[in-house]
Design a protein that fits this description.
The complex is a heterodimer of chains A (258) and B (177).
Chain A lengths: L2 E8 L3 E2 L5 E9 L5 E12 L11 E5 L2 E5 L1 E2 L3 E2 L10 E5 L7 E4 L3 E6 L1 E3 L11 E2 L11 E2 L3 E8 L12 E12 L2 E7 L1 E2 L2 E2 L4 E7 L8 E7 L5 E7 L3 E10 L2 E11 L1
Antiparallel strand pairs in A: 1-8, 1-16, 2-16, 3-9, 3-15, 4-13, 4-14, 4-16, 5-11, 5-15, 6-10, 7-9, 17-22, 18-19, 20-21, 20-23, 23-24
Chain B lengths: L2 E6 L3 E2 L6 E8 L6 E12 L9 E6 L5 E2 L1 E2 L3 E2 L10 E5 L11 E2 L5 E6 L9 E3 L3 E2 L10 E3 L3 E8 L10 E11 L1
Antiparallel strand pairs in B: 1-8, 1-16, 2-16, 3-9, 3-15, 4-13, 4-14, 4-16, 5-11, 5-15, 6-10, 7-9
């Protein structure tokens, strides 16, 4: 298809959490999205401020599930003419009060960052890739319903001290529009087209309406026509409501539009 | 191509022996090929070493490896499934956990790499990616055919140069046809 958006996000500083596991970043392409997300760059930086004489934490990236919490971040645009899909969400942890809750998947890539064996001299903070650089050219794809999760894994809780570790994550991604098919119709009352009727369009994975998503709520114009786009491979359903004076109308739904 | 996949080992401690088999990837499929696109090692050594640091050598192992821990394979695209005959092994089953030795014999070295050592335990410790295959394998095919494997091996001048205070891990990306 076509790339409809390229953007980036910057995670505000995340302090360590004095625990052996800390989810610091998540990129979600939620159910309902009209795009595949191709991650083009994902890096972490760490500024450790106190000495750590044991092994440093690893940062592991996986396809996480059951992601919630944290804070949602603004998405920056490479080109202001483009708009990101609203179902693409970026999340970071923020202090003790807003941790990300998630379940890790199999590790895709991992990275050490740095530690201070003793706290002396200059401290360098270089970009450390959380996905291999080759994702710049080989698509690393998140389809709708999939997510990427970056997690700090420490040998001991003291290895990711809140008073020492300052984590940054940066991410660049593209959104690749998926193919859709159109459904449409005309709302009539006693054979006459109706303007001002409300058509609710729902999309789901299958005829059992698994993972239902509200696609659109359309107010019909003069002529009573409506249309919506459904992802190829999914099913759509439309329902109509109309109020005229004190009279409320509805119409039989049009389910299983494939 | 049937897809791109990756795998990561667990944090593996030095064994105070030389050599130490750290990681393998093997292809036992009669018809499918594996193309290695990236292979990296990182090390955090927390103890002083004033002699030469270990080398990490990559070779085609003399036979298909056995033992170790078979690692989970991650997908670049969930529409693609990795061939069950593509097998990745690591030297333990959890970060810092008990060793599960990989049995494999090194062949002729393809590439080698120093990683790091602490001459004195002072100051910052950085952890850059150490490429144990040259980056040109992104575009120049390094192919594993049936019953071929790559072995990542730590080779130290003395066993004491690779103590349990060495914390290793490996990452790999490959393509399958």
């Amino acid at each position: 298809m076509a790339i409809t958006f390229t953007g980036g996000v910057m995670v505000p500083t995340v302090f360590g959490n004095d625990a052996v596991t800390q989810h610091i970043f998540a990129l979600e392409n939620q159910i309902g999205s009209r795009v595949d997300v191709n991650v083009r760059r994902l890096v972490v930086q760490n500024d450790p401020q106190t000495a750590l004489a044991s092994v440093m934490p690893q940062v592991k990236v996986s396809r996480g599930v059951n992601i919630s919490g944290g804070i949602l971040l603004d998405k920056a645009k490479f080109r202001t003419t483009e708009t990101s899909d609203p179902f693409v969400k970026i999340r970071s942890a923020l202090g003790e009060g807003s941790p990300i809750t998630a379940t890790r998947g199999d590790t895709i890539w991992q990275q050490y960052t740095s530690r201070l064996h003793t706290a002396v001299e200059q401290v360098i903070a270089s970009d450390e890739s959380l996905l291999p650089r080759l994702v710049e050219t080989f698509d690393f794809k998140l389809r709708p319903g999939e997510s990427l999760l970056a997690t700090v894994i420490s040998a001991t809780a003291a290895s990711n001290s809140a008073l020492s570790h300052n984590w940054l994550v940066d991410c660049i991604w593209e959104e690749d529009q998926k193919s859709t098919f159109a459904i449409s119709g005309t709302v009539t009352l006693s054979g006459i087209p109706v303007s001002g009727a409300i058509v609710t369009v729902i999309e789901a994975d299958d005829l059992d309406m698994t993972n239902p998503v509200l696609v659109d709520t359309i107010v019909t114009p003069a002529g009573g026509t409506w249309s919506a786009d459904i992802l190829t491979g999914k099913v759509g359903a439309a329902f109509v409501q109309y109020r005229s004076g004190g009279t409320l109308y509805t119409a039989p739904g049009s389910p299983y539009l494939e | 191509m049937a897809g791109i996949f990756s795998a990561a080992s667990f944090r593996t401690l030095g064994t105070a022996a030389t050599p130490q088999n750290l990681f393998t990837i093997e292809n036992i499929d009669a018809t499918k090929l594996i193309y290695i696109r990236r292979l990296t090692v990182q090390l955090d050594a927390t103890a002083v070493l004033v002699s030469v640091m270990p080398q990490v050598k990559v070779s085609r192992s003399a036979a298909v490896p056995i033992g170790g821990t078979v690692l989970a394979k991650a997908q670049f695209d969930t529409a693609n499934a990795s061939n069950a005959n593509s097998i990745v092994r690591g030297g333990n089953a959890s970060d810092g956990g008990v060793a599960t030795a990989i049995t494999a014999t090194a062949g002729t070295s393809i590439w080698q790499q120093y990683c790091m050592r602490m001459h004195t335990v002072v100051g910052q410790v950085l952890a850059p990616d150490n490429n144990v295959l040259p980056l040109l394998v992104e575009t120049e095919d390094l192919i594993l055919r049936q019953n071929q494997a790559l072995l990542v091996q730590v080779v130290a001048s003395a066993g004491a140069s690779n103590p349990a205070t060495n914390h290793w891990f490996c990452n790999v990306v490959w393509e399958e046809d």
